[in-house]
Amino acid sequence: MRNLRVKDARLAAVLAQEECLLFDGAMGTQLQARGLAAGELPELLCLTDPDGIRAIHGAYVAAGADAVTTNTFGANAAKLGDAATVEQVFSAAIACAKASGAAYVAADIGPTGQLLAPLGTCSFDEAYTLFAEQVRAADAAGADLLIIETMADLAEAKAAVLAAKENSDLPIFCTMTFAEDGRTFLGTTPEVAAITLSALGVDALGINCSLGPAALVPLAKRMIPYADCPVMVQANAGLPRVEDGATAYDIGPDAYVAAVAEMVDAGVTIIGGCCGTDPAYTAAERRLLCDRGRDGGTGRLSRFDSVTSDLSPRHARHAGDVFTVTSAQSHVALAPGSVGVIGERINPTGKKRLKEALRAGELDYVMGEAIKQAEAGAQILDVNAGLPEIDERRTMLRLCTELSGVTTLPLQIDSADPAVIEAAVRSYPGKALINSCNGKREVLDAVLPLAAHYGCAVVGLTLDEQGIPQDAQGRLAIARRIVGAAEKLGIPRCDIAIDCLTMAASTDQSAPRAILDGIALVKRDLPGVRTVLGVSNISFGLPFRPLVNATFLAAAFAAGLDLAIINPLDPRMMDVVNSWRVLSGEDASAQEFVAEYANRPDAAAVAAPESSPSIRVAENAAAGYPAHEDQTIEQRIHAAILSGRKDPVPQQVEELLENGSDTLSVINEVLIPALDEVGERFERGAFFLPQLMASAEAAKAGFEVLRARGGSAPVPADKGKIVLCTVRGDIHDIGKNIVRMLLENYGFDVIDLGRDVDPQAVVDAVLAHDARLVGLSALMTTTVAGMADTIRLLRKQAPAAKVMVGGAVLNPEYAQMVGADYYAKDATESAKIAREILG
Amino acid sequence: MPIESYSLSSLPRRAVLRYLGYRGQEIASEIDARIDRFVARVLELAHPRSSWAVFDVAGRSARDDGTSETHLAGTALTLMGSSIATHMDGAVACAVMAVTVGMDVERELKRLSATDSVASVIFDAAASVAVEEAAAACQKSIIAEAAARGLHANARFSPGYGDLPLAVQPVLLASVDAQRRLGIALTDTLLMVPTKSITAVMGIFETSRAARRSELMSGSLA
């Protein structure tokens, strides 16, 4: 737990939610009113016009503000560039703020201006470095607290909070900005923000900017139950519009304060203003606090003010004892008595296909597993990258980043290596679940501090230096040790899930009873603590394992299991979960169960949900390629590929193999001829792009079956490797994607580096894959230079590779000018060039 | 400096097909259904918004290297290059706009490109059409604002067209507060994220395009 440096007793009372605090209003709006040009760096005025900045702060203090916010919103090294150093700006800005006579100077830290990966290109560490420099400058210059604000990206907010925690002991306030749909631009909800920032240990959290105050009332109310600290709101004065050629905001001070009053009554204790507000709003807010008797300055507020009574919603979290984890966009909140599902599929142990995918760095397969589990009902995804022959840390980080792009489910970071856990949870955009620590002293000392510092929930395994205890009491004793050590670090019980460890029933038939009793004991003797269990091991060595697993899962729920680590793609397991939710009362009036199961003949017999019913409706209606009963299987596969229907293909290929065809003949006599016909149709303009792609996809579904059967992958006639990308500075990739599809259809192995690719990355890929041909695409005149750079570097470092270029702005002359070997006017042309070079 | 949001209830299918390289081929019903599905998905996920402002033209100059510059009043934005100088020739003011369909579309693009390449190409095309539609709606507002002042706006012109460099993007976005208002960020190579975003400027003139053209004609005859 952090030791805070709190300026005075009043601020301490604010942090304890015993008193209210009034912040100032807009800085930017005031600067514009004084003639700041749009797009200029307002922070430089701290250096060039300190009197002007002091006057703005002074007007807010005169209007009654307790805290003023320094003019440092964008004062980071990336935005300031050569104009000034971060230290210079913070030092001048804090001097201006102090000169105003405000009770508290809040050092302002806004977003970096860059977007973090995976959607952007800025890394978590780069953002952290920018923030850390600001924090150190603010602390050194004498700020009283840090306010991290207008955050839209939870990952960026986390980087800023960690930078603050690790470089200063000043109180940290952190607010995010929300759009009309109640989420930030990056999809974070008020609940997710409150849970995640609370777990990170901020001293106040809330909302700023966004919208007018009335629109923020419901959002503040959603935050309050999940906040462990004061909630603050600084709204805009409504929406800006043009009035007589000037910008005006549509909510005046009176209407503004009426909405703020509603928030104060709901439990918001720190208020102020954002865009469009001025000292008149601050004065009105000061009057509101006086009227409410919440005016700390007058001394009228006592510790026993009604808002801080035990009935206050603020205390609901501890009383309610809710287990929470978050991703950047969604949260899981399990009240006592509710059960949750953790998907186990992204763990290579015993999964051949996943091992292969992780080794090859083939993340599409992993992403597919994640999406399937989410669709099947998983609420949290376990992620494990522990394979001896791969770099676990790097793979784990890559998986976490890429998974956050395809699923909104919170992740369970699963590793035996504390260094891997730390790397993953540090940059994880949310409150992760760590899997796991156990009763070994060394492990407790290594893992629990990570959960405390990075604000995570944590799984505790009931094993220690002596191994796994045979009986329930032994398991409870270890659980007790884990919980005690966690509580010492400030980790609340609702953030701890104890795993009583499943042992195979076939080797010890007393094991299941000991596990179930262990769960019951932990729940009884350590109230508030949750239990978690990976159930599949129970059936090891037995036939019909899904049945045994399902029976054991039902028994575990009855014993008090909260979180089940299972394969949600096994319908039998989800049937147990869904029906248990009816029996436990979690599924009120069995509404969800009835909606899901009312029309099912036999729950267990139904297969996992398929992609989409609309595909099947269209199945037999594909233009011109009807699937007739009297066709041979080969003909039906051919027809399916030509009409771009992938669903029936795997089954049909299986049938062929069962009828005695071998892998090679399926490839050479069925799949390849179909693909050839597809390519030919595309070339003569009978097919357009999506059709070509759908056909390739259908063929790929067939290849997948062969690959699963044959072990090693029988790729279609491998004709050689081609590196393909859109060059640096350009993001237009539709054309490049067309070229890739066509080249793949012709059997070329295409290494697609994507778009906006650095020249060195192209060279590295060419060398790593020994590629003899490179395809570069550019769509903007301004990026043709990037193409020339790339080719120059290729000539120097990989002179053997031939280069073809294409894209809307290119022509043969341009291609020659940038130094390319070939100009491809369209996708068909690129395939001809590839055949010429690679044969 | 208004913020506007637009509701899109449909997308012109022809435009989506054009992005997909469609030239009158027969469309299998399977593909047809998928196009409908992903157009609907774009409409569901898009939050088209704009932030725009109008600045007076303060003057024109040439750098030592001959590059022409158009200066604007009340903003740090300067427009460089001969193509934008031609576009702004005679303009009294300049509208600056930033438009985006938002991060939900961006995330879905990313998700589909990892999981379903056919869907990702169709979704990408539909999302491109959606942001074009949003930009058209923003242009309409600017034209209306100009008309209210008795002025006329010409077509929109984006960084990356002609010789207007992408280097103007940071200041252009800052001059309409696009990061805070719309959530548009720049990569270090000056590309926008969300990628389905458009920035542009429009010239604002005292006379309509037709009048300007006839003026030019009579000038050349004289």
Please render the helix and strand layout as text:
The complex is a heterodimer of chains A (839) and B (222).
Chain A: H1 9-15, E1 21-22, H2 28-33, H3 45-48, H4 50-62, E2 67-69, H5 77-80, H6 86-99, E3 104-109, H7 124-140, E4 145-151, H8 154-167, E5 172-176, H9 190-200, E6 204-209, H10 213-223, E7 231-235, E8 240-243, E9 246-249, H11 253-266, E10 270-273, H12 279-291, H13 316-320, E11 323-326, E12 331-334, E13 340-346, H14 352-359, H15 363-376, E14 380-384, H16 392-406, E15 411-414, H17 418-427, E16 433-438, H18 441-454, E17 457-461, H19 472-488, E18 496-499, H20 511-525, E19 530-534, H21 545-559, E20 563-566, H22 571-583, H23 591-597, H24 613-618, H25 633-643, H26 649-658, H27 663-683, H28 689-710, E21 721-726, H29 734-745, E22 749-752, H30 759-769, E23 773-777, H31 784-797, E24 802-806, H32 812-817, E25 822-823, H33 827-838
Parallel strand pairs in A: 1-10, 2-3, 3-4, 4-5, 5-6, 6-7, 7-10, 13-14, 13-20, 14-15, 15-16, 16-17, 17-18, 18-19, 19-20, 21-22, 21-23, 23-24, 24-25
Antiparallel strand pairs in A: 8-9, 11-12
Helix pairs in contact in A: 4-6, 6-7, 7-8, 8-9, 9-10, 10-11, 11-12, 15-16, 16-17, 17-18, 19-20, 20-21, 21-22, 25-26, 25-27, 25-28, 26-28, 27-28, 28-29, 29-33, 30-31
Chain B: E1 3-5, H1 13-19, H2 29-45, E2 49-62, E3 68-72, E4 78-80, H3 82-87, E5 93-100, H4 103-115, H5 117-148, E6 152-157, H6 169-175, H7 178-182, E7 185-186, E8 192-193, E9 197-205, H8 209-221
Antiparallel strand pairs in B: 1-2, 2-3, 2-5, 3-4, 5-9, 6-9, 7-8
Helix pairs in contact in B: 1-5, 2-5, 4-5
